[in-house]
Amino acid sequence: MSPQSSVLYDAPGPRTRRRTTIAAVLIGVALLAGAYYLVYRPLEAKGQFTAVKWGPLVDLADPNLPLVWERIRLGIIATLTAAALAIVCSLLAGTLLAVVRMLLKEQAKRRYAGLPAAAAYALRGLNTALRGITRFCVEVFRGLPVLVTIFFAWRISGISDPLWPLVIGLSIYNSVVIAEIIRSGMEGLPRGQREAADSLGLTPFQAILLVQLPQAFRIMLPALISQLVVILKDTTLGYIITYEDILAVAQQMIQILQNPIQMYVIIGAVFIAINYALSQLAAYVQRRVSRVRAHKPAAAATELAASEPVVLDA
Amino acid sequence: MDVLIDNADVFVSGFWLTLQLCVLSATGALLIGTIVAAMRISPVPSLRWAGATYVTLVRNLPLTIVFFLTSFGLPELGSNADFLRVPGLSSVFDRLGIDLPYFRFAVIALSVYTAAFVCEAIRSGVNAVPAGQAEAARSLGLTFRQNLLSIVLPQAWRAAIVPLGSVIIAMIKNSALAGAFGVTGELFSSGQNLTSSGGNPIIPVFIGISIGYLIMTVPLGIFIDRVENRRAVAR
Fold first, then answer.
1. CATH of the domain at B109
2. CA B32 → CA A78, B111, B118, B169, distances in Å?
3. What average pLDDT is seen over chain B?
4. Fold of the CATH domain A58-307
């Protein structure tokens, strides 16, 4: 029970507790009965629970089981490979983009007093242009469906192996998202961090790299991990550009075994297991981050960033 | 760029269909999501478990698998999603009424998937209301219903609108997947057709498709930023 829900009503007395228990049992029975009559019965009538459909997936005595799971394993490895490559690429590109955008913002304040007027204006114009371009890229690629970036990365690049277009398409979208996560982490830091770095004589680049970036990473770690869940889920779009991932493998096997529902339920379960583990990791890291922060005096300002709900973006 | 002008009607009708899909799915997702959120904060344990199970399962599934399960599972359940063929509604959203069920399946898949995120957004909004508010209401003698309806939800709504907005933006982007599941003439699938069978140059088509999606996502994003900034000042 979340703490909030217990605030909404009084601690139940014996009568309310009894009533709640009765309601809980009745509703539970109703839900199960609904599931039985509306889902189980029709599916059974259509023969969806027969050994022919489930056997190759779950029956250890079935001769096809090792072959089927071997293919599923290969498919999952293909999916995880693409996801891992996309994660590495988007983390690198995202961090780079975040640092570049912070530096450009920094440079916008400079007046280039020692240079001739024309050069100073040129440099400031260049800065404005670069800021505009990076801002534009962020807004555009954040607003596009990742399916569109994957598909057109595939068609425009013309690479025949679909792995790289998939990785590129995923990275374009996710590096922009990760850049925004890291940037908001850096901007959410207490100002004293940056001022201290400046007063120690660090250059802007050093200050960002040595002081702001590591702290932003730490605060934003939960959000970054849940973005990894998003990347892993989006990797399944690869089958649309003919990448031999878990879904492509599943489709091939369904052609032979004729069991689409069973196959997708099993594969869905695999995904739920992996992603659930990742989300638990994110929640654990979030608890740790906020606990560590709570001991420090600067906590108040960063608490906000750390307690943001884990990214909801699907 | 001629491709864009020559095929303007394709892009416009694709945009229109995607917009219809998004409006319907957003309505469905908000409805289901609110119900599931209400289940998750209710005092009845079995409702809470049902809601939590739903969110955990759906949130960790890739949308692709939700789509596959909908389009293979619903026919096996003996349903062509005909309950969505509401007479008045079908005259506005013409794809709802046709015999091919793929548009209705896409609406269901997107609603069911997005609802899990809507639920979490609403719940995070409810959790953002300071506990003192609910406690004060309770000490004034308000019941659970009164407390929820007149104290907590109005404030939760304000905190939930930003995450809800990003959920809806994500849903608009996810709707592109419907094109791969039989919803012909949707924005992404019409772009796919133009490049593969139409033999048109790829980059202009890409730009056309992108503009279509950006028209929907960017204004919504700007709106959310506005709301967020206003809230930040108010705090």
1. 1.10.3720.10
2. 34, 8, 8, 17
3. 83
4. MetI-like fold (1.10.3720)
